[in-house]
Amino acid sequence: MAMFGSQARNGGEGVNTLADGSELRLALYKSDGCPYCQRVFASIDRLNVAIEYRDVNQGGHRADHVKRTGRQTVPCLYVNDEPMFESGDIIAWLNDRFSAR
Q1: Which end of the chain has the lower number of beta carbons within 10 A, N or C?
Q2: What is the pLDDT of residues 33-80, one digit of tens each?
Q3: If you ran DSSP here, which 8-state letter would residue 7 be given?
Q4: What residue segments make up the domains of the chain, in order of their start?
């Protein structure tokens, strides 16, 4: 499995347009060394989902994440600014929304 420290993990708009025309803005608070994040990365890549990546080890993202949620836990997927924790829940949600594309 490839390491996920490349620039592909460092940004993007994170806007996805669904079949009904609605948009989902997705941002993933992550750490490249986190094994649970690695599982989420694999699903994102497999499903070809647009994600804005926010590394908690860079740029003040950890402080922002803690301020918004009171937690330091990663991965955390923000869906239209609403946080979702737990890699299994994130993967299931991604599969439900994007596997039929």
Answers
A1: N
A2: 999 999 999 999 999 999 999 999 998 999 999 999 999 999 999 999
A3: G
A4: 24-98
Residue type, 72: Q
State the pTM of this model: 0.85
Which stretches does DSSP call E strand in the chain? 15-17, 23-30, 52-55, 76-79, 82-85
**Residue 30 is encoded by which pair of tokens?**
């992550």
3-class DSSP state of 46 = helix
- Number of CB atoms found within 10 A of residue 45's CB: 13
Query: What is the model's pLDDT at position 101?
Result: 64
Span 24-98 CATH architecture: 3-Layer(aba) Sandwich (3.40)
In a 13 Å sphere around the CA of 10, the CA atoms on its Cβ side amount to 5
**Which residue carries 């994600």 as its tokens?**
51
